[in-house]
Structure prediction request, 330 residues.
Amino acid sequence: MNLINHFLKYLNSNKPIKDQLVVSTFYKFEELKNVNKTKIDLNNFLAKINLKGTILLANEGINGTICGNSEDTLNFYKNLSNWSHFKDLKPKYSLCTINPFLRMKVKIKQEIVTIGDKKIRPERLVGEYVEPKFWNEMIDDIETLIIDTRNNYEISIGTFKNSINPKLNSFREFPQWVKKNIIDKNVPKSKKIAMFCTGGIRCEKSTSHLKKLGFENIFHLEGGILKYLEQIPKVESKWLGECFVFDYRVSVKHGLKVGNFDMCFACRMPLSIEDKKHSDFEEGKSCHHCFNKTSKSQKKRFDERQKQIYLSKKKNQDHLGPKNNIKKNF
Prediction:
């Protein structure tokens, strides 16, 4: 199925109502020989439509999340389908009524997802994909190591049953965790290991890393948690909690509906309703995760920013900062 038909199939199945916007995420590991030209071409086209989000480009490929109305999104994918590198993308989609992004940015990076080892090449060597409909069987197998490759703060609000939390502060730490907990512990190269992440991109690199080390039975969840939550009914799900996303929605639930978490502006940690009742929580300024980790001058700066956000809201203006209570409007 080509890129355009892939999106039209989603629209026909979900039928967005008036004012609903489409959030779509996509990535592909593909050698890009002229990243600067790709950025210029993308920006020239994006200037003609009204999409917001972030697109990362590197020599190893593309990684993006965008949001806009269905017409602009369709035009975007029509344009990408003309590029040989990107015509076979398989984006993931969800709906909202307020754009969770503030602007459109196209950035050039060393890696589209940073692991710190350029010898890891998912486009050449990668684990075996497991479709969401077969994932439950995989994680119910007690002989399989199930590893959540996301950061610790993401895992704190939700993960799969029976999975291991490596307690990573960043994805860069994953190779060292593997060395300490798999290589140094002499886990057999024949061991069945399955990994997952938000949209699948980190698992492309994590499975590639383990395959490069000689492990034979390496698997990962195709389309990541987002595709699983989209396709698997809640009554059949092995997912526990909500899934952190890197925009002002903060989290999503089954069916990719916006979740119940907000975000601390100071430290970016996800906050539940109970977290916001804590005595250390001040909107836009601090939470119990960071209250004792920021200086008085930082708290003063956060407080001033929050005042500016409040004043902008009173004037019904946009402000460059977290949109408080944005999820109530989804």
